[in-house]
Design the sequence.
């Protein structure tokens, strides 16, 4: 090698070393800028997951994915999805060792909160580092960030000792946000997307909390608080220094990319989840949505003659082959779009004969035809263009058009109605017959709500309220107790009243024997009562440890309820119990013949697969299935349901939580509205001191109906049963006062008739002889308020009542201001 070649090679080597040095130096500087005091970092990378364990980037701090929290990939990013079932990430106690050393610090993370999330409830913690998950009682310190008002707080006790920095506005929803809390000496600052939005004085450092033991992402330090459901997080970081504003800005650089990735997934999900009904065999016009949530949809068709871009279908002629059409949907949001093709097959028209056969075969009556309590939705045209004409052999009960005129009289049983459908097209026709059984009138006229008032002195006692419609309740006895608790209980207080009407005509009440001002939350007994009139009761105290040695150490015997076992012909009592070292379990046992105790030792009724505390059981029997509603505690609080085809075993817990609020709830009760298939699920929203009411037709899907409900009292954990007019009159005579005085009418049916009753949209009122302008039809609610009035202008009047709230009303016919008749109707 020549000297020149050697010098050339040395110069090349020098350049390589220089470039490597510059690269290493640059990486070191960049790393120092991005990791200035970084002591905890969860990237949520799927490679860091093992089972339900999620490790931080250092591998030193394993966290636990709890409930339905999971790690996902979103485009090029990794995220933590907290899910809809009270999911959270348990960071573990070891993280507390670094939290306990913090003075100045910074906590940063990306957060996405769904637009549908209700942030008004207490809780909504994004992150929490504390010494208990029951801070209200333990009072041993925590620091947290809540999305409820975009607030940081720290306390060495609980809320009474808090110092906070509060933006006083709900955390932004529907878009990714980069959230930073920075503590620099005695100043705390909240940053959103790199911008400081609020600062305040905070003199308590995390080190004052010690090594925190209860450290979470997505879970509160306060038991019963709302979880941050359906929230997403990315890139969670804790620094042991106060980052500069430029460093904080650098941390939020991926926010727009995260948002774009999220929108793209939302578009893809919308496309994949869109179901076009009967797309494989198109016979009628299609419903092609133009908007799904906040996503716009545009359509194109490969064969607009057969399916237009608006979904209008033109079928091929008789004898032609089916036609395949590609419908292209373009889903758009925030400047992004995603296309998806749906393949539809349009079938040709059938002959008249085949059309009649097919439409006849496809007739399905929607509704409970074995126990009909509502109008039938009858089809009058078939898919193949046929005409369907109906006739009823009992039009006084069920009209030719499927209108339920009246129920079968109480005590008679169901009424059989034969419905005949004549299906025709051209010269072809055929007949199908259907049997429908109209339900028997249950014979009830009102509702009794039994409840207690609270945890304070004198509040744990039985109270009554009444309602005509199951929505609007009025307290009896001036909202004072109807049974003195110290005369029936061993502890001086009773809670959670439940009344059963048994086949023997007697009423059976069960209660929790507990007086919180003296006992706290520990008790050992229940109270059993028996009555023939809901007013005069015999009573017995059923003490579990005294009667059953295997439960000598129970610390809680809570919320008993009862149900009549048709097979055993006995009353089954079910309730929750807890023993030391365990959790609350729902048990059952049969009451003895005189209802003064239990026949045998309690047996476990519900086996929760997650082995979590379960209380407040409530069993409802519907269509051959027992639905056990209950509340879970400790690992996601809320109301769930388990189902079984047997009363005493085989219950399978179902998802999801059924409460329609993020607030803490307990004490659910399900009751069916009289002579309807509508079920009411109500529950105690105890942190707010209110009740929430929901309705369902299938015990699966529940809709909030709080706007239909009124109460002149504030109940705690109560239950509702239907009662007769005679029972209502007796209760009002015993406990009534001015607030429960409702006009009494002599209901007679001589001058006019109303159908259908119950009704939902329209009333047909026949009133022959009341034709002139001086005859008036008035509708009153049960509080005496006139809600509607029209002139009676012919032999019959049709009233649109769809705008009125569900419930009972009084329809009054008068002439020249003289009341001729009043009838009670039910709207639903």
Sequence:
């Amino acid at each position: 090698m020549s000297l020149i070649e050697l010098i050339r090679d040395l110069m090349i080597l020098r350049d390589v070393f220089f470039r490597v040095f510059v690269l290493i130096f640059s990486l070191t500087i960049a790393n120092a800028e991005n990791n200035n005091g970084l002591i905890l970092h969860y990237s949520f990378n799927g490679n860091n997951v093992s089972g339900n364990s999620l490790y931080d980037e250092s591998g030193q701090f394993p966290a636990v994915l709890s409930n339905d929290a999971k790690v996902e990939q979103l485009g090029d990013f990794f995220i933590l999805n907290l899910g809809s079932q009270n999911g959270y990430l348990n960071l573990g106690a070891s993280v507390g060792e670094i939290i306990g050393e913090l003075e100045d610090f910074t906590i940063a993370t990306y957060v996405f909160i769904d637009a549908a999330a209700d942030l008004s409830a207490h809780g909504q913690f994004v992150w929490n580092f504390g010494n208990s998950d029951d801070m209200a009682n333990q009072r041993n310190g925590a620091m947290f960030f809540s999305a409820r008002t975009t607030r940081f707080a720290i306390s060495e006790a609980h809320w009474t000792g808090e110092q906070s920095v509060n933006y006083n506005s709900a955390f932004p929803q529907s878009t990714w946000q980069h959230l930073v809390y920075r503590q620099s000496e005695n100043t705390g600052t909240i940053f959103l997307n790199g911008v400081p939005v609020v600062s305040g004085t905070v003199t308590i450092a995390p080190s004052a909390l010690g090594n925190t033991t209860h450290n979470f992402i997505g879970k509160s330090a306060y038991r019963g608080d709302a979880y941050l459901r359906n929230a997403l997080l990315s890139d969670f970081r804790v620094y042991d220094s106060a980052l500069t504003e430029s460093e904080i800005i650098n941390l939020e650089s991926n926010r727009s990319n995260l948002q774009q990735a999220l929108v793209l997934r939302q578009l893809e999900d919308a496309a994949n989840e869109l179901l076009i009904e009967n797309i494989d065999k198109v016979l009628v016009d299609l419903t092609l949505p133009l908007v799904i949530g906040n996503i716009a949809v545009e359509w194109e068709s490969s064969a607009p003659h057969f399916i237009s871009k608006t979904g209008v279908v033109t079928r091929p002629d008789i004898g032609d082959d089916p036609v395949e059409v590609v419908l292209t949907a373009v889903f758009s949001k925030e400047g992004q779009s995603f296309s998806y093709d749906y393949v539809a097959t349009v079938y040709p028209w059938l002959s008249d004969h085949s059309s009649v056969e097919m439409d006849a075969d496809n007739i399905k009556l929607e509704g409970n035809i074995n126990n009909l309590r509502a109008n039938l939705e009858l089809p009058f045209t078939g898919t193949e263009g046929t005409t369907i004409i109906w006739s009823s052999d009992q039009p006084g009960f069920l009209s030719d058009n499927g209108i339920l005129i009246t129920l079968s009289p109480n005590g008679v049983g169901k009424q059989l109605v034969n419905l005949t459908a004549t299906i025709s097209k051209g010269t072809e026709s055929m007949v199908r017959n259907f049997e429908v059984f109209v339900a028997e009138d249950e014979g009830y006229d009102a509702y009794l709500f039994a409840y207690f008032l609270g945890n304070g002195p004198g509040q744990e006692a039985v109270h009554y309220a009444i309602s005509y419609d199951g929505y609007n309740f009025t307290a009896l006895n001036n909202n004072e107790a109807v049974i003195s608790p110290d005369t029936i209980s061993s502890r001086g207080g009773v809670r959670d009243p439940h009344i059963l009407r048994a086949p023997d005509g007697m009423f059976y009440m069960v209660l929790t024997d507990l007086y919180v001002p003296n006992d706290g939350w520990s008790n050992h007994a229940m109270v059993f009562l028996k009555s023939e009139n809901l007013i005069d009761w015999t009573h017995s105290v059923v003490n579990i440890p005294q009667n059953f040695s295997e439960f000598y150490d129970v610390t809680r015997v809570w919320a008993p309820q009862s149900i009549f076992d048709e097979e055993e012909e006995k009353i089954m009592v079910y309730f929750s119990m807890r023993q030391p070292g365990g959790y609350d379990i729902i048990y059952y046992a049969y009451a003895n013949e005189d209802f003064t105790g239990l026949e045998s030792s309690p047996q476990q009724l519900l086996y929760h697969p997650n082995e979590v505390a379960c209380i407040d059981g409530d069993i409802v029997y519907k269509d051959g299935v027992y639905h056990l509603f209950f509340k879970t505690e400790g690992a996601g609080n809320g109301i769930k349901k388990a189902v079984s085809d047997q009363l005493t075993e085989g219950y399978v817990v179902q998802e999801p939580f059924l409460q329609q609020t993020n607030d803490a709830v307990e004490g659910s009760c399900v009751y069916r509205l009289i002579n309807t298939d509508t079920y009411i699920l109500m529950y105690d929203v105890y942190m707010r001191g209110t009740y929430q009411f929901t309705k369902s037709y299938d015990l699966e899907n529940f809709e909030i109906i709080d706007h239909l409900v009124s109460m002149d009292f504030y109940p705690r954990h109560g239950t509702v049963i239907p009662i007769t007019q005679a029972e209502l009159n007796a209760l009002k005579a015993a406990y009534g006062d001015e607030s429960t005085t409702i006009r009494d009418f002599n209901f007679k049916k001589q001058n006019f008739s109303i159908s259908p009753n119950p009704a939902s949209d329209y009333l047909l009122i026949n009133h022959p002889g009341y034709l002139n302008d001086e005859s008036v039809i008035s509708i009153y609610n049960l509080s005496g308020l006139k809600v509607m009035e029209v002139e009676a202008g012919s032999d019959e009047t049709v009233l649109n009542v769809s705008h009125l709230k569900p419930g009972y009303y009084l329809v009054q016919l008068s002439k020249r201001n003289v009341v001729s008749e009043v009838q009670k109707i039910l709207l639903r």
